[in-house]
Each structure stands twice: as C-alpha cells, then as structure tokens.
Amino acid sequence: MLKNYFKIAIAVLQRRKFFTFISLFGISFTLTIIILVSAFISHVLSAGYPDVNRDRELYVSKMHIINKKNRSAYNGGPSFYFISHYVSALKTQEKLAMFSNNSSTNSYASTKKLVINLQYTNDVFWDVLQFNFIEGKPYNKQQLDNGEKVAVISEDTRTNYFGEDVQAVGKYIETDNVQYRVIGVVKSVPFTSNVYADMYAPYTVSKEDFHNTGLMGGYTGILLLRSSGDFDKMRLEFNEMVDKINTTAQNNDQVYTFANTFLESFTRSLPFGEETDSGMTIFLLIVTVIFLLFLLLPTLNLVNINISRIMERSSEIAVRKAFGASSQTLVYQFIVENLILTCIGGIIGVVLSYIILAITNSSNIIPNLALTINFKVLFTSLLACIVFGLLSGVYPAWRMSRMQVTTALKA
Amino acid sequence: MIRLEKIEKVYRTSTVETLALSSISLNIVKGEFLSIMGPSGCGKSTLLNIMGLLDAPTKGEIKIDEQTTGNLNDRQLANFRNKKLGFIFQSYHLINDLKVLDNVELPLLYRSASAGERKKLASEALEKVGLSNRVKHFPTQLSGGQKQRVAIARAIVGQPEIILADEPTGNLDSAMGNEIMDILLHLNKTDGATIVMVTHDENMARRTHRLVRLFDGSQVQ
Hints:
The complex is a heterodimer of chains A (411) and B (221).
Chain A: H1 2-15, H2 17-45, E1 57-60, E2 63-67, E3 73-78, H3 80-86, E4 95-100, E5 103-109, E6 112-121, H4 125-128, E7 133-136, H5 141-145, E8 150-154, H6 155-162, E9 172-175, E10 178-186, E11 199-202, E12 216-217, E13 219-224, H7 231-248, E14 253-257, H8 262-268, H9 280-312, H10 314-322, H11 327-363, H12 375-401, H13 405-410
Parallel strand pairs in A: 6-11, 8-10
Antiparallel strand pairs in A: 1-13, 2-3, 2-14, 3-12, 4-13, 5-6, 7-10, 8-11, 9-10
Chain B: E1 2-12, E2 17-28, E3 33-37, H1 44-51, E4 59-64, E5 67-68, H2 74-84, E6 85-88, H3 100-109, H4 115-128, H5 144-156, E7 162-166, H6 174-190, E8 194-198, H7 202-206, E9 210-215, E10 218-219
Parallel strand pairs in B: 3-8, 3-9, 6-7, 7-8
Antiparallel strand pairs in B: 1-2, 1-4, 4-5, 9-10
C-alpha cells in the first residue's frame, strides 16, 4: 500500500508543477534557514577549537555592582584583581585560565597597516584551552613572572605580518610601538570564539595597573573542573566567596557575579539577563517561539495549498471511499503523501544547506568560521521536517475525510 | 440479498427541504439483474447510493445479506462495501495518475492482500473484460469504452456479490454501450453477480431481469 501511496504522491507532485515548486521551495527554504541558524548557534555555544572542555568549565565573565544607597548600577566584567585575588583562592577548580578582553592595536607590516586584536593571558590559559601549535610553544610561568615581551600569534597574523609560509618563531612583531618576540604560532581561532584574538601575550606586559583593587574590569576567568559533577560544589564555593565580599565590604556596593556555564554566561550578556537570573530560560523560550513561528508560516502556506489540491482530488477520494477506504485510512494516506513531499523538501533543504555552508566557510565572511552540520542539528532538522509534514497534512486530511462521497462523485 | 424497507431521503438546506425518495421498499434477490429507470431528478442515483451505503437514508432500513447496515460505523461500512459491493460510475472515475492495473487493484488495497495476489487478481479481472493488453496504459490513453471496461474490472476484482452500476453506458455510443452491457450480462449469468443498474436506456433495461420505475422519488412500477 505504501508503494501505491508513493506512486500517487509523485504523480500529484507532477500534476501541478508550479504549486509543487511553491510547496517544495517553502519547505526547503525554511529548513535551510533552520539548519544554517542551528549550525551557527551550535558553533557558537558548543565546545569547539580551542575551547574544547566546555562540558567541565565554568566562566566568570560578568559582574554587576549595585550601590545600595543611591541604586546606581554598573555592568561589566570582573577585574584582573578579582580573578587573581579571589577566584584563584578557591579550592574546587583544577585550573584557572585568565584572559583580558581584546584590545585593538595598530601594527605596520612593510607598507601595510594591520589591526591586531591583542589578548593578555596567564600561563594556565594554554593548559585550559587546547590550541593547535603550528610552530613553537606558549609562554610559561617563568616568562610571565619575568614580564618577558613574548607573544603567540595566529596563523593569519603570521601570514599578514611576515608573509605566506614564513617561519615566525624567533622573529619580532611590533604593535602599538611595542616589540614582542614570537615564540609560538597557533591555528587561527574562529571569530565567534570567546578567545578569538590575533595575538596573545602575558598579562604582565600589559599597561594595566595591577595595583588597582577594583572588582570590575576587563577580564574573564575560566574555571576548569575535574568533571561536570563538580559544578554545584564550585558554584557553592564561588557564591560563598561573593557573599563574603558583600558582607565585609566597607562601601554600599552589592556585587553580583556568578560562575556560569558557557550558555548561561552567554544569556546573561543579553538584555534579559539580570543580576540573579542568567536569563537562560527566557532565551530558550524566545528561541523556541521564534523557531515555532518560523515553522508555522510555511506550514500554514502548505495547509492552504494542500486543501486546494484535495478539492481537485475529490473524485479520487470518493472512489476510494466507495471501494472500502475508511476516513481514517484516507487521512493516513494523505499524511503519508504529505510526509513524502516534506521529506523531498527536507532533502533539498539539507543539500542546499551543505552547499551554502561550504560557500560561507570558503568565503571567509566571518574569519576562520568552519560551520558544520553536526548530527544534533541534522536530527533536529529532520524532526522539524516530519513535524512540518504532519502539521501541514493533518487539517487538510481531516477536511478530506469528511467529504461526502455522493457530492464528490458529482463534482 | 438486498432489502429496502420504507426508505426515505430528505435533503435539507437552511431554506429548502427536498424529498428525494418517498417510502421506497424493494427486495432484490441473489443473482438478479435489476434496472432502475425514471426521468432526471426522480431519485434513481440517490436510491443507488443508499443501496451502496454511500449515503444514509433519512428514514427506513437497509439489509444486505441479512445484515442491517444502519448501525454500522464508518470503518465497518467501509469494510462492508469493500467485501460485498462493487461500483461502476457513469463517468468511470478512474484515477488518471495510476496505470490501468493499479486502478483495478484499488479495492484490494483495503484488504490484507499481498502485492503479488493483488496483481494476479487484477490481471484476471482485466482478462474477463478483454483488456489484458492495456495493463500498463494510463486512463487518458484509453477510449470511453475501454475506460468503462477498466471500471468494470475494478468493480469485480474483489469478487463482490453485488455490483451497483450508475448509468454505465451513459457516456458511450450505442456500439460501446452494447459491449458493456454484454459484459455485465455475462458477469450476471456466469458469476452469479447481483447487479443493480440505473439507466435511461429502455433497450438496455429490457435485457435485464426486472425493471423498477421511479417518479418524483416514488416507485411507480
């Protein structure tokens, strides 16, 4: 029977080619967008080069300070002092990586002006993040303590500054009038990464005043834990530390900062993230609603097209009923036909997505972006395809099943 | 075989009530070939549809093979039609997207028959109507007479006991109409099929066992 339905489905598709095109375009376009957006979100939020340990990391990246007296509020990141003095003293983490926000610096290579994004880090940064060293190695604790002007640069920076396929280790790179000796070259990091930079240097060579004991600044800490099972313990210890700061503070400032997973720290940076709520629930709710709305529009379009197609097939439906098809059987047939249509649209959508992703990746629109369609994204998309097929088939199928045979035979 | 008792059919809209059939009682025995005649709008097709369980009467009872059909649900009715009834329509109502063989197999899709079995039975039905050489054609490639023969094959493929034909020769010329009538008579004589045929053609009606005339929804003969 399924073979019969398949034959009918293909024949119906060939009958009115324009409507078929509209239906398939709607399905495949919607799915392509869903796949591409899912791939991008997955790329941004999932573990990826070089931050591959996200499943056992917590991030200290946001801070709010509210003055209890005059209710003034400050939003930003934690300072170097906060991370190196308070966070590093905690016991639960295995390691603590620290890195600054990117600074845009100016550099000149021959006659070319380059903007180099420079990030200052500690030595443990290289243990927590898994960079791929093409040349050389990272700076160590001794070089950090000695304040040596050394740097690790990205592969792209090497190409832009020194030229194609030139060995850079041992050479000097100058930016913002400071010369650094290159000791390592790493595979370039995607622009979307939280540790994206063109060049990394020890924090001891930055011009920041490290005697400043303010809690707010431009640093991020990554707490690497032994396993995700330590999350609660880490959070408890971290929160106790923050509570202690608040209770012993001499001024009226109330500090809000948290050790969050990457997703939580991402949603906290969005407008609906609050002092005490990461906003993850609202974020997921908004994403779900947008996803459903996006799915709903072509579904409604397909429902309309399907209803008009059903009316064209009233004679066939009447004959099937006359010869023994129950209403339930006909609903099943129609839904199967619709699923075949949406699966064809889905396959086209997946193929289109691969093509667009390949073009996007090779065009380097977003530097070093390597989007992939992973299994989760593909599975979600195919599931969306099936849901789409069911949703857009159920109502027309129900309408069809209620058709009076005698009226349809006269049509 | 078919017993109709005081069948009444009223069509109601928001403004008008139309009495299509008025207290029709009819008894059709097994193996009978019955014609129903009457002017346009007298209720012939309505009566046939009610016999075929495609429409429900407003009043009255239908019994087919001693089975009362009034209390059957949608699924049971569909099953009953599949097993006991075969239909032939004036406009053939073949599915143009399916080949001849697939059209004839249609009733068997709603039984638990394997693909091989369906193909065998459909081929045998087509042989009976003399169309074995057209199995891979589409309905649009056939003449009117050939289409009606495919429709007959479809009606008999499941070996139903009752065949209901609504003006089977209405869209055909006299030569083709006679051919179709010969096939129906043959089915009635050799296979013992009970046939109820609605027709406008007196000549065709005379070739059947019995004639029932309707006028304005009532039986007059």
